[in-house]
Amino acid sequence: MSNSDNTSGSLLGWLGFRGARHPAGANGQSPSASETHSPFWQARRELLDEIASFLLTHGLDVTANNLLAAHEVACGANPALARQIARRLAEGEAITQQWLDEATAAHDGEDKHDGIEQLMTRLESTLESFSKNTSAARSATSDYSDELAQHVAELDQVQQTGSIISSLADLAKAMLERTRRLETDMRRSEDEAKGLRRSLEKAKRDAEVDHLTGLLNRRSFEAVLDREFHEARAQLDPLVVAFCDIDHFKQINDNHGHEAGDRVIRAIADMLAGVSDDNCHVARHGGEEFVMLFRGATLTEAKKRLDDVREQMAERRLVNRKTDEAFGRITFSAGIADVFDHSDPRAALRAADEALYAAKEAGRNQICIAPRAEASA
Q1: By C-alpha distance, which of 355, 352, 365, 360 is closest to 294?
Q2: With contact defined as beta carbons under 8 Å apart, do 217 and 210 qualify?
Q3: Cα 349 from chain centroid?
Q4: Which of 43, 51, 257, 354 would bridge 70 by S-S if both were Cys, CB 3.0 to 4.6 A apart?
């Protein structure tokens, strides 16, 4: 048995499977020969082998996070991470522990983002209810205060009041003062609720925007894609999606630093945003990658608009302001797809992503059109 097989067996044993070659059966005993040759057991074995191979090939430690990442990639539970790994390997880059930690952290951040959005929605609902209640209560106490003040004035005007009436008047005055204080407190609480609502609206806007470029972020773009897809389909408008990726971006970071890399990202973001309007949406999809949606433009028209931006960018000569050193020629590649040439918007996104790969492999600084899906032909 090879060293790789020994290591793989140790990994399976560490995972809690009895025996290096055959996991334990459901009853805790070694599975029978018929069980180990069943499709179910074979599939389990292949999945475990893929997980072990992934960790061993890339020299990754056997940790809970690494096992989870390897499992998600092997079983297809995290296609975005699988695409990132495939892209990195295609570019000749290693899958290091640091890179995998950053990639999985970004995925976890998206899940947390969903929780934040749910919390903000609940908080917004609570604020709205509180604002309505305080407004109604303040209105009621105001009406009560007016009526009570009138009765106090009438009591004061009585010329001959007995001690009981006098005490009643004093009590009414005290009650009037308390209701006025309560009305002031409620008004202050209502103002605080309005301020909190404004802060909440700002937080929601910030959650929808990429902090580096000011563009929509990935989550917001997916919501726009769903909305535009249904509207365009109902109105028979063409709809095109595009993926753009900065060429040789790692070299920019390596040669000039991450701050300079961020400035390059912002420069390309500004140029892509220059063609956006009510029917063209631009978002930062992550890292050096952008995604665009063209509504009302055919595939040829969308490619022409994006090609114009690509050529303008290639003609620019950016300089690192910190060192006065030229960046050299900055270009990007892109892949575009007609959304209605595919089964659904997500399939169109995948097709555009694959076309982007094709543009990279063909030499970069160009745009490739995704072929029409066979099922839609």
Answers
A1: 352
A2: yes
A3: 15
A4: 51
CA 115 to chain centre: 11
Contact 276, 282 (CB under 8 A): yes
Residue 306 CB: number of other CB atoms within 10 A? 23
Instruction: With beta carbons less than 8 A apart as the criterion, state whether 242 and 335 touch.
Output: yes
Taking the C-alpha atoms of residue 221 and residue 195, their distance in angstroms, rounded to an integer, is 28
The mean-pLDDT minimum among 134-143, 177-186, 342-351 falls in 134-143
Please indicate, yes or no, whether residues 198 and 239 belong to a single structural domain of this protein. no
The DSSP H or E segment spanning 289 is: strand 289-295
Measured in whole angstroms, how far is the alpha carbon of residue 196 from the centre of its chain?
24
DSSP 8-class letter at 47: H
Task: Dump pLDDT digits (tens) for 284-304.
Answer: 998 899 999 999 999 999 999
pLDDT tens digits, 217-267: 998 999 999 999 999 999 999 999 999 999 999 998 888 888 999 999 999
Judge whether 339 and 306 are in contact, CB under 8 Å: no
| Long-range contacts (CB closer than 8 Å, 24 or more residues apart) made by 11-14 | 11/51, 11/52, 11/55, 11/56, 11/62, 12/48, 12/52, 14/62
pLDDT at 144: 60
Number of structural domains (the chain) is: 3
Could you read off the pLDDT of 29-72 as tens digits, one per residue?
555 555 555 666 677 777 788 888 888 888 888 888 888 888 88
356 and 226 housed in the same domain: yes
Q: Retrieve residue 132's tokens.
A: 């309505």
pTM, full prediction: 0.55
pLDDT score for 208: 84
Do you know the residue count of the chain? 377
What pLDDT shows up at residue 277?
A: 86
Q: What is the pLDDT at residue 86?
A: 86
Residue 303 neighbours by CB distance under 10 Å? 20
The reply to whether 188 and 222 lie within a common domain is no
State how beta strands 332-338 and 367-369 pair: parallel
The verdict on 251 and 372 lying in the same domain is yes
